[in-house]
């Protein structure tokens, strides 16, 4: 056990210590000597230069150093600017970005440049996917965009921590603007993910994913944990953020009441199924008078006939109205 504790003590070092080995093995990474790391961490310090990262990008009051070959390979925009001395950027070997925050640009840099241990770029996750998607369109980064779309398509909020699901939901609410509703790549991916073209939400992947995040977050099983996380988040955020967080959080906490289908009247329908879950009335076994009637209810908002179970679920139309108002 002594070796084990020794290994843990050194776990912040950048030498890939793996405590699963039966003996004390240290994997020396051959590339680390060419990288500059943030003090006592395994992550690259992009504010100082290294052997390969010698191209400065100025944004706000920060200056980051990147490997121009990585940027050229990933982006047509940067390839043309960096590789062409007709452009001032290519001639003086420096790039100024005036219309983005340093935080967002660093998110982009760490998603395509080796970061952890000087080897691995940051993974796409709930917190960075929307920023990346937006910047991919701006800087013509096709590969990264497809990876972001894959992340959204394969995302299953019911298997993730509510706090992370909230990050994605919140980002989707504000970071992606209306033009994404007509993005053909996102629309195709959505149809694939939902496998249901009748559902209005499936026309748009981000909208579909928001709806499934909301369903998970407003689940009574998750509300307590979500509430705890929310208090922590509100203590940290600034005024403008906290107002937005409050608006989004309120809708989640009252999700059941706000987004439930608006039922006008019940009707017994023969031979037709629920418009939401496609459940059909049971085949009649006998002519007994005691059989339970198969009741569908009409929602005034989305105009769909829904079964008893679906009555209590979220109405996609009400959700769409809410999101349009939030973004306007
Ligand atoms: Zn409805
Ligand atoms: Zn149903």
UniProtKB/TrEMBL annotation:
<dbReference type="Pfam" id="PF00651">
    <property type="entry name" value="BTB"/>
</dbReference>
<dbReference type="InterPro" id="IPR000210">
    <property type="entry name" value="BTB/POZ_dom"/>
</dbReference>
<protein>
    <recommendedName>
        <fullName>BTB domain-containing protein</fullName>
    </recommendedName>
</protein>
<dbReference type="InterPro" id="IPR011333">
    <property type="entry name" value="SKP1/BTB/POZ_sf"/>
</dbReference>
<feature type="domain" description="BTB">
    <location>
        <begin position="57"/>
        <end position="154"/>
    </location>
</feature>
């Amino acid at each position: 056990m002594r070796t084990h504790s020794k290994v843990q003590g050194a776990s912040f070092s950048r030498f890939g210590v793996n405590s699963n080995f039966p003996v004390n093995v240290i994997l020396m990474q051959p590339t680390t000597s060419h990288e500059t790391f943030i003090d006592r961490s395994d992550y690259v310090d992009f504010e100082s230069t290294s052997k390969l990262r010698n191209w400065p990008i100025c944004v706000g009051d920060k200056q980051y150093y990147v490997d121009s070959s990585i940027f050229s390979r990933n982006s047509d925009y940067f390839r043309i600017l960096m590789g062409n001395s007709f452009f001032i950027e290519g001639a003086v070997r420096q790039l100024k970005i005036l219309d983005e925050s340093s935080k967002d640009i660093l998110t982009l840099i760490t998603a395509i440049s080796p970061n952890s241990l000087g080897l691995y770029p940051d993974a796409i996750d709930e917190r960075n996917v929307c920023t990346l998607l937006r910047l991919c369109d701006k800087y013509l980064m096709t590969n990264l965009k497809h990876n972001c779309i894959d992340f959204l398509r394969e995302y299953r909020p019911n298997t993730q921590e509510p706090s992370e699901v909230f990050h994605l939901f919140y980002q989707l609410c504000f970071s992606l603007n209306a033009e994404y509703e007509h993005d053909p790549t996102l629309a195709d991916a959505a149809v694939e993910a939902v496998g249901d073209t009748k559902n209005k939400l499936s026309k748009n992947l981000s909208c579909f994913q928001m709806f499934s995040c909301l369903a998970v977050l407003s689940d009574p099983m998750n509300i307590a944990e979500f509430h705890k996380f929310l208090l922590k988040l509100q203590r940290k955020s600034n005024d403008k953020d906290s107002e937005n967080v409050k608006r989004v959080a309120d809708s989640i906490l009252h999700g059941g009441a706000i987004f439930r289908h608006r039922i006008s009247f019940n009707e017994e329908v023969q031979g037709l199924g629920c418009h939401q879950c496609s459940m059909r009335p049971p085949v009649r076994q006998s002519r007994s008078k005691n059989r339970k009637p198969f009741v569908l209810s009409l929602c005034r908002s989305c105009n769909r006939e829904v079964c008893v179970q679906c009555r209590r679920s979220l109405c996609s139309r009400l959700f769409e109205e809410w999101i349009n108002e939030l973004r306007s």
